[in-house]
Specification:
By secondary structure, the protein is α+β, with helices and mostly antiparallel strands. The protein is built from 5 helices and 10 strands. It folds into 2 domains: 39-78, no CATH class; 82-220, Nucleoside Triphosphate Pyrophosphohydrolase, CATH 3.90.79. Strand 2 and strand 3 (68-78) form a beta hairpin.
Amino acid sequence: MEDQNPPNRPLIQAAAGAGVAIVSALIQNVAMSETKLSARIIDSNTVYQGFYRLQRLTLEHDRFDGETAGPLVREVLQRSDVVAALLHDPASDRVVMVEQYRPGPHLAGEYPWLTDIVAGRIEAGQTPLEAIQREIVEESGLAPGSIQPIGTYFTAPHISSEKVHLFLATVNADAVAGSHGLAHEGEDIRPRVFGRRELLELAKQQPLSLWAGLALSWFEAGNAK
């Protein structure tokens, strides 16, 4: 039987042509993504030096379309990398967090005593493993058992060169007591013990640090050995 509604051939041809163009563009993008792009720092100046160093960069970088972007001015915070660890007691399936005042949440209008995981700077000459062993003792007062790497992440790559080396460490939650931290750094840190479900509920009620959220997500996914 003859089709009572013959197709609109020009429309079909146009659509087909558009489809070919889209597929071609996708193929081109895939091919381009396999080519390493480059960036060039033209000038770098230290505009502030304190706890962090603030660098103002003038730079150029390749674009995905083959052109060059820039010169552009970008400001980057520089300091040594950090380590952080989620503390887990496998015998009781409890997690030890630490609570301390943080000025960032304060400025953001949040409750500034943040419940977080143990974290600190990697000191000169230390490996990430050595640094996290030290930080666990300093901030929680606990002796770590096994320590399992989770991963390494940029904390805020749009404004900082900082990376966090994230770990899971086993501890004895029954040994939690008192407050801790280094007096000469003005630290006042209180370890707190949470059941797994209790901690997950807490995470829904208040903002966490990025590394605490990453560690908890990894832990809840069943990755702990």
